[in-house]
């Protein structure tokens, strides 16, 4: 049985990926510093799959702890989620973001090199494209100057991995996520934003739950059909399954280059107003919202060309936007009980 390290494995995307790894028969060991999640997620994963993953509470910024982990643990692959991910926060705390998102990546790659470990999957983001010139966005779209420190850590992270792959013959894949949303059908795991949510869907569900007074729609003067910005919202279980597909590609040595990257989205663009309407319809409620000014740094539209990911990963999304929004609302309701 292959043993896979999942860093950030108690986080939103990490926990859903751990569930899918266990469903596929992988043994899982999780490293998480619990800075942006709670230990109860470990029990929830165990409830879903019946198997408790090994867990180490380690901060990957502590190089000696990372070394000590690998002294005790041999793994057949690493899926690296652990990172800070708040775009706005990254602008006021740049050094924390570079240390946490890049310093830790270097430590992991050093351990892989020193111990002949292989098969590394990196959590990247469509943010690396900025506002793409053409839609849908293909993997050949140019990487533009990052609009945030967070986005820059993803761009630099990919370059670090590319260079390490070439220098040490490591096999690696970066998955460029679009917008992850929704919750596991068991409603035992989902998004756990701490504080005021920056992302749209948790703000929508918290408004519907009465935790927030109303949703602010950041701008309706974009050059889109209804004037609100367009994104590619992918269900987190579909996203988790893309990681399994990428891991199998590396383990089975089907990758064509040492470092590969794929756009992971649905291929469909949805505007903020369309999200609101779909959320109201599928959950049979009225959402309180108002139109306000655009948010600094937001782009007009981003949605994936999924041709390469579908073909090379033999993977495609299966869950539609309404089912995703229904699961997000059910998850929110489960939080308030
Ligand atoms: C989506 C749309 C907002 C909140 C970022 C990162 C990406 C990934 C996901 C981390 C935009 C609008 C939002 C609100 C709104 N990173 N919005 N009112 O900015 O596309 O992507 O988060 O997980 O790498 O770049 O996601 O959910 O913040 O915004 O109108 O209260 O919703 O303007 O059009 P974004 P988002």
Topology:
Elements: E1 3-7, H1 12-23, E2 27-31, H2 40-49, E3 54-56, H3 63-72, E4 77-80, H4 87-92, H5 94-114, E5 120-125, H6 149-168, E6 172-177, E7 179-181, H7 200-208, E8 215-218, E9 230-231, E10 233-235, H8 236-251, E11 259-264, E12 270-271, H9 272-283, E13 289-292, H10 307-312, H11 321-335
Helix pairs in contact: 1-2, 1-8, 3-5, 5-6, 7-11, 9-11
The structure holds UDP-4-deoxy-4-formamido-beta-L-arabinopyranose.
The site of UDP-4-deoxy-4-formamido-beta-L-arabinopyranose has 18 residues, from helix 7 and strand 8.
Q: Could you give a short description of this structure?
A:
The protein has 337 residues and is of the alpha/beta class.
How would you describe the overall organization of this protein?
With about 325 residues, the protein is an alpha/beta fold. The protein has a domain at about 5-185 and about 235-265: NAD(P)-binding Rossmann-like Domain (Rossmann fold, 3-Layer(aba) Sandwich). About 40% of the residues lie in helices and about 15% in strands. The chain is built from 11 helices and 13 strands. The strands form 4 sheets. The protein has a 7-stranded parallel sheet, sandwiched between helices. Strands 7-10 form a two-stranded parallel sheet. Helix 1 crosses helix 8 and helix 5 runs parallel beside helix 6. The longest helix is centred in the first third of the chain and has 21 residues, at about 95-115. The chain is globular. The structure holds UDP-4-deoxy-4-formamido-beta-L-arabinopyranose. UDP-4-deoxy-4-formamido-beta-L-arabinopyranose binds next to helix 7 and strand 8. UDP-4-deoxy-4-formamido-beta-L-arabinopyranose binds near residues 87, 199 and 229.
């Amino acid at each position: 049985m292959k043993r896979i390290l999942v860093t950030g494995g108690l986080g939103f995307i990490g926990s859903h990926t751990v569930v899918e790894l266990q469903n596929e028969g992988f043994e899982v060991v999780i490293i998480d510093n619990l800075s942006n999640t709670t230990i109860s997620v470990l029990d929830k994963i165990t409830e879903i799959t019946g198997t408790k993953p090994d867990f180490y509470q380690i901060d990957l910024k502590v190089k000696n702890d990372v070394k000590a982990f690998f002294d005790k643990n041999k793994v057949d692959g690493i899926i690296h989620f652990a990172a800070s991910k708040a775009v706005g926060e990254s602008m006021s705390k740049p050094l924390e973001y570079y240390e946490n998102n890049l310093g830790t990546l270097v430590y992991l790659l050093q351990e892989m090199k020193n111990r002949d470990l292989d098969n590394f999957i990196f959590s990247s983001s469509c943010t690396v494209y900025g506002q793409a010139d053409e839609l849908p966005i293909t993997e050949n779209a140019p990487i533009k100057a990052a609009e945030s420190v967070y986005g820059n850590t993803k761009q630099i992270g990919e370059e670090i991995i590319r260079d390490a792959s070439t220098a040490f013959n490591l096999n690696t894949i970066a998955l460029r996520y679009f917008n992850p949303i929704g919750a596991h059908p068991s409603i035992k795991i989902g998004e756990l934003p701490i504080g005021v949510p920056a992302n749209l869907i948790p703000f929508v569900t918290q408004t519907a739950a009465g935790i927030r007074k109303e949703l602010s729609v950041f701008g309706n003067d974009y050059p889109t059909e209804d004037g609100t910005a367009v994104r590619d919202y992918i269900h987190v279980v579909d996203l988790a399954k893309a990681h399994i597909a990428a891991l199998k590609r590396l383990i089975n040595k089907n990758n064509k280059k040492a470092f590969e990257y794929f756009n992971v989205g649905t291929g469909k663009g949805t505007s903020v107003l369309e999200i609101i309407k779909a959320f109201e319809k599928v959950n049979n409620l009225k959402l309180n919202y108002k139109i306000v000014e655009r948010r600094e740094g937001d782009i007009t539209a981003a949605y994936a060309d999924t041709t390469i990911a579908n073909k090379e990963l033999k993977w495609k999304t299966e869950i539609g936007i309404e089912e995703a929004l229904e699961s997000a609302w059910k998850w929110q309701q489960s939080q308030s009980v």
